[in-house]
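can u pls check wat happens w/ 26Q
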Amino acid sequence: MNHIFENKETFKGAYVLALNHLFAKKIENATLYERYATLASILDTHLKTDYRSTTEYVEKNNLKKTIYFSMEFLMGRLITSNLMNAGYASVVKEAFKDWGYDLNEIEQTESDAGLGNGGLGRLAACFLDSAASLSLPLYGNSLRYQHGFFVQKIENNKQVEYPDNWLERPFIWEEKKEDEAVEVPFFGYVENIRLIDPVWVRAIPYDVKVVGAQNGVVTHLRLWSTEPSKKYHYQDQAYLNMVKNITDSLYPDDSTEDGKLLRLQQQYLFSAAGIKSAINEHKRLGRDVRSLADYYTFQINDTHPTLIIPELMRVLMDEEGLGYDEAWQIVNKTCAYTNHTILAEALEKWNIKIFRRLLPRIYEIIAEMNKRFIAELVSKGYSQEKIYRMQLIGVNNVRMANICINASFSVNGVAALHTDILKKIELNDFYQLYPEKFNNKTNGITHRRWLLHINPELTSIIDSLLGSKWQKDLSLIKGLEKYANDAKVQSQIKDMKLTKKRILIKRIYEDTGVMLNENAIFDIQIKRLHEYKRQLLNILHIIYLYLRLKKDAEFKKNFHPQNFIFGAKAAPSYHMAKGIIELINAASKVINNDKDTNELLKVVFVENYNVTYAEFLFPAADLSEQISTASKEASGTGNMKFMLNGAVTIGTMDGANVEIVEQAGKENAVIFGMSAEEVTTLYKNNGYKPRKYYDEDKRLRDIFEFIRTLNSNPTHFDFILHNLLNSDYFLVMADFASYVEAQAKANKLYQDAKTWWRMSIMNIANAGFFTSDRTIAQYNEDIWHLTPITF
Ligand code: 26Q
């Protein structure tokens, strides 16, 4: 092998030439961005060789593929993870060092690809990395949004949204493939299964390379963009606007808002285009459509890509001439569905009027599926009531989850507790009908990004103790356990934390002007803002602490300083969530500026929490806030990133927290609050009286009083307080006392250094289960059955 990344001298030569070629500059005159773009370009070009050999290998050997259909891929920046996976990071670092440049600095100019809302989108990105690293032919399919998830600014304590113009400068990792464009029809009317006078939109794929970890495998994430159809000679402005709008922006996660036609259009666009390109490929390789299921699994990431089901039916019947039953058999063997949500009210549904107008033929097919499904249930003797609950169309809505469950061969939840709740409660009707379809795949995170890349300090501690094999097989990190009580290792971990805290402190100071104490406990809650995630419980407790520190000298003496850090975006129309952001910011201003408590207590809300910010936050954390109302958080994945970086979880027995505790041991987490079962029973009995807690707990009354002083208008936050008193669906009041106790316990534990750092090490040592390599291996074993690429 002889190539430009071979050693630093060959690299330097190639880099200088490329910089001259691209920007006509010498290295000392180039801007940071030009230096970045040059590096990214030569790496991307270099990867083409592996990309081509991977594609050729998969085709020559007729390997089955998984197409991971997801409306979101929250990729973040790619330069470092691509360099690391390709195995060239150290050569490049060395070369840059010779020139006096820092790779980290260059990385900062890449824009963060924020094509997702939160957990579901980041999971999809971790899965791409893991599948490629396990040499599995898995390919992503999504949309190329011109604007990613909005940029958040805090103005006057409030969230303000700005567009994310991430494509302002060229996205170097993508390749436009004009020759693989497809035409997608919308609207029109149906005559004898034929769609008459539709509006055609051209979908063009942009493929983003996905690099496996040091195995020569390069797959891709296919992002569809829209352009005017080639079928028209004349196009009016309204048509051009429609075409542009389809891939203009990512929708914020917002189950409260009514279905928007544009979102349905996005869903059909990437579903239909993805199916079309799979079938085109299948035929190009000389295979019969009847064998589709032997060559593809279509994984449906939540219900957003549900339309691949009726679309595949349509193609097989209307274009390929198969009968309904034959088409149905194929769909049933190709599609698999992952559920990410428990909240029944969040299950996706579409008004049939909107649906029929946009997708008349697809609607007909769903209606036919529904008719047959109902007939099946009737023949099985199901009650009318149960049939109403299960049918695919009901109460004027198309029910996406019902379609997915009916048409897929696999239905999985994303953590053990979540899958259990689906089976026993939320989807019990379906579980009884199709017990064999249901399975669990506990989520995971790619340890390459979330440890090797973001925490080289911890990586090298582990390397020095265990060698480097664990980097390939994270289960080996268990070997750390035997050092849990080792004073030297404990102090290395503590030093690592201090290093990471200092980096974060600098960043937060630059961003917010707040200077944090490096000796304090770093207590971090970073995730989307949702009532069920209970950022409100966190801030109520902080206010309690503040008031107590001000009046209780004994308490103050025994209290270890604590920094509370929040990062969260609220959906733009989610009034309550935005109110909670404002409350956190208003409270933090008072608290951070009080000389009485200043040294002990700080509260920071970081602006624009995203993948890039996350990479600074996880490694610096001592306490990981995972405090959702039990049963409401399907899994959580931030909880795993904290654990892997040595933070201790303070949390409820919800989602994957249950498995974190199972792996690390209950004594190595701080658990509080009602259980999922208790929550379910409480809801069922209809007897929850949140006001009782207020009446009986002076701490809550004092907190409410304080909140009324935070704004010149004392009723400013009353909509939050009234909700707590009169409804409190997420049981903040019920869990308050238990949370205060858990926080006190954590604060005390931290002061016992030997115990604390043992807990921290035990968490790292037992995080092996949570690599997405394990998750992907399980998907493959139970659902996909892909053969690995072995060159
Ligand atoms: C719905 C309607 C209209 C517009 C947007 C949406 C929408 C968009 C995104 C609804 C939901 C989402 C995302 C959901 C999500 O991220 N769920 C999280 O998935 C993670 C990965 O499985 C879990 O760890 C989290 O527990 C779960 O909340």
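The mean pLDDT is 97.
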